[in-house]
Amino acid sequence: MQKVKAYVRLIRVYQWTKSGFIFLPFVFSTKAISLVTEPFADYSLVILSEIAFAFFGFSFMASAIYVLNDWKDRELDRLDPKKKKRPLASGTVSALEGALIGVALAVSGLFLASQAGTITAGIVLAYAAMNVFYTYYGKNVLLLDVFIISVGFVLRVLAGAYAIEVEASPWLLSCTFFISLFLGFYKRYFEISNAPAEPMLGGQYRRESLKSFIDISAGLAIMTYSLYTIQGTHAGSMLYLTIPFVVMGIFRYYTLLDTPAEIDGNPSDVLLADLFLAFVIFAWVAVCFGLIFYFEYLHA
């Protein structure tokens, strides 16, 4: 049982919440309406299966990248007070086991993604290639590291869109990119608040500059989302009523900037640890779908 727990910790199942971005094109599409109105129709079951394949395919591949990162840095992690407890660094999982698990996850992830379509599989493969580059080089380059992470979230949205064959609005992609930048710089802020900033190619992060990056990214995220609700695909569905949820969620993150170090600034950790934030996100999704359903189905 301890070994199983170590495997679960290694693949970071809790990080699969990030793959929730895959569902955004579904939430903002009329296919969500079809699923609600005819949940047992063949068409609806196909939609569910395709988005499920995309979600688990992306999640498995992301876990493979986490394993690769831990496998590569296992010697260095042993010198870190916190990271030394990771399964590979602590020796709970051997290097060979880690390598086999990583390969199995990558192959399984690509196979699952291929069930949602060739393009979806291609996006997952591109994500994997980008993150291999990130693991061995990109994470050591100032700014590039966070931008790569943000592109990863955009690829999640694209994967979700192609899986169910809907268009990913440029507004939605832009908003995803900026909110991901916000979350990425937010995490870096926490990291250097709890430990000295590591030298990187191009310099090193500083609290003052990161606060500015966080402010700019948050402002751009709110602006692009607001424009999306007013001028985007569902401009007639009064989605601008959901702007307060987005603003509230971002402001909640701001209030957590000075919380204890155990939250660590990781978006997944914060989401799971903060019930208020989880409620805001759930309410935002529910209201978005409710407005689209009301104006584009009931009053179509």
TrEMBL record:
The chain crosses the membrane at residues 20-37, 43-68, 88-113, 119-137, 142-164, 170-189, 234-254, 275-295. GO terms for molecular function: transferase activity, transferring alkyl or aryl (other than methyl) groups. It holds the Pfam family UbiA. GO terms for biological process: glycolipid biosynthetic process. InterPro entries: Prenyltransferase, UbiA_prenyltransferase, UbiA_sf. Keywords: Cell membrane, Membrane, Transferase, Transmembrane, Transmembrane helix. It is found in: Membrane. GO terms for cellular component: plasma membrane. Gene3D superfamilies: UbiA prenyltransferase (1.10.357.140). It is a multi-pass membrane protein. It comes from the Bacteria. This is UbiA prenyltransferase.
